[in-house]
Amino acid sequence: MHNPHIYLSIFLGIKILLLILLAFVIFKGALWLRNKPTPSQKAFPYESFYCVKNTLKQMNEHFYVAQIIFTNKKNCTLTAQSESPHRFSEGQD
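Now predict its structure.
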């Protein structure tokens, strides 16, 4: 492999490949900057939440049901909600 044409063609191929990759990266960067979403509101670094209600019910020996209700308002009370009767499909076949 003492032929300089072979080395020149390999070098030229690598150079063309790098040029294509560079153009692709620049094109993708331009698209990303053009389509960059603008923030409509400035987000707070943190928001405080307060626990309104928490319950833990034991259904059987191995099964627990927990309910935790949070709000971001400091003085918030829960209003009474009417509960609809629950229908269980077990044993109603």
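The beta strands are 50-60, 63-71.
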